[in-house]
Amino acid sequence: MSDLGPLLLARLLNLNEVQSGVLNIIFRIADDRGLLLLDFKDLRAITQYIGDNAKAFQNQYGNISSASVGAIQRGLLTLEQQGAEHFFGEPMLDIEDWMRLDENGKGGD
Predict the structure, then answer these.
(1) Is residue 109 part of a domain?
(2) Widest CA span of the chain, in angstroms?
(3) What percent of the chain has pLDDT over 90?
(4) 105: in domain
(5) Which among 38, 54, 72, 85 could disulfide-bond with 64, CB atoms 3.0 to 4.6 Å apart, if both were Cys?
(6) What is the number of domains present in the chain?
(7) Taking Cα atoms as reference points, which of 32, 34, 27 lies closest to residue 7?
(8) CA neighbours within 13 Å on the CB side: how many for 85?
(9) Is residue 22 a part of any domain in this protein?
């Protein structure tokens, strides 16, 4: 999830500007604390933790509304239910896994 980043994930979750900002804060807090977000489980856990402790983060990172945290959690749950965890976990998705090459290393059919 860390490699995906908050901007692309916000688009996948169809978040509005405020919700995207909160997702960016979540990624920033994880980065500042040296936490790797490997999969949906990790991201949901830190999102829940930050939502539960929003006041403790407010002075340093800005307002984190419970409504935005809830929207992010619902979006993550929806993606998980659609099977997205197969693409955003370990091992990391490599775009080359979707490309077919012929024996000369050229694009195949």
Answers:
(1) no
(2) 58
(3) 61
(4) no
(5) 54
(6) 1
(7) 27
(8) 13
(9) yes
